[in-house]
Design goal:
CATH superfamily of the largest domain: Histidine kinase-like ATPase, C-terminal domain
CATH topology of the largest domain: Heat Shock Protein 90
Strand order of the largest sheet: 2-4-5-7-6
Strand content: 5-15%
Number of helices: 10
Largest sheet: 5 strands, mixed
CATH class of the largest domain: Alpha Beta
CATH architecture of the largest domain: 2-Layer Sandwich
Length: 289
Amino acid sequence: MFTWLYFKRLQKNFNSFICTIERFREGDYEARFDARVPNELHSIMLAFNSLADRLHRNIQELKQSEDERKDFIANISHDLRTPLSVAKGYTETLLLQGKLNPQAIEHLQLVEHKIQVVENLVMQLFELSKLESVEFKAQREPFVIAEVMKEIVTSWVLPAEAKHIKLECLGCEGSYMIFADVSMLEKVIRNLMGNAVSYTPENGFIKVELHKKSTDLILQFSNSGPKVPADLIEWINRTDKGSGILKRPARSGLGLAIVKRILELHDYEFAITTNRHNQFTIRMKLYSN
C-alpha cells in the first residue's frame, strides 16, 4: 500500500515537472514549479524557479546594453547545467534501482527525455552566446559543400522514411567549393534538415538543392506542409544585426537563431519564402583560387 501511494505521488510530481518544462521550452518564461510542498524534486524546482525568475526579469528589463545581454545568455546557460545534471542523475538512479512498476518506469523515462530536451536547449543557448561574442571568429577554409550536404541529408533518410516523406538531394554529387567554417555550415544544414523533417507532414516531400548561379552557389531547402508563420518569416528576413535571440518570435526555436547568426557571420544572403511551399534559400560565394 505504501509503495502504491509513493508511486502515485511520484507520478503526480513528474507530471507537473514535465508540464512546466514543456511550457518553458515553448516560450512561456513565466512557467514555474509549485515548490511550496517539499518532494523528491524540491531542490531542483527551487533552482529552476530562481533561474526562470532571473531570465524573465532580464527579458522584461531589456534596456541593458548588447554586451550585458550576451553575458546574460552565457551565464544563464552555464547556471542551468547544474540543476539539470542533478535531475538527470536522480532519474537515472531511480531507473537503475530496478524496483519500479512499469508505469513508474515509463514516467521516469519520460522525465529523463524531457531533461535531455532542456539540456539541448541549454547547449543551444551556450552555442548562441559564443557565436554572438565579439571575440568569436569563423575558422574559414575551402571545402566541397556538396560532400557535407550529402552526409547530413543521408543521416535524415530513416527519420524521413518513417513519415513516408519523399527526400531528394539535387546537386549532392557536385564539386563546388566555398570558403567557410565547415563545422558552422554543418550546424546550419543539420538545423534546417531537422526542422524540415519535423514540420513536414506524413507523405510530404523535402528537397535540398544546390546549384551555381553566376559566381554564387544557391542552397535551397524546400518542404511541403503548413506555411511558416509570417512573424517568423519577417524575423528571419530582417537584415539588421539587432534581430537576435530575444527579438525572435515565440516558438521559433533556438536552432533557427543559431542558423541566422552563422549565416550573418559569413555575410551570406538568406531568406524564407512560402509561395508554393516553404523554402529557405542561402546564397554563397563560389571559392576560387
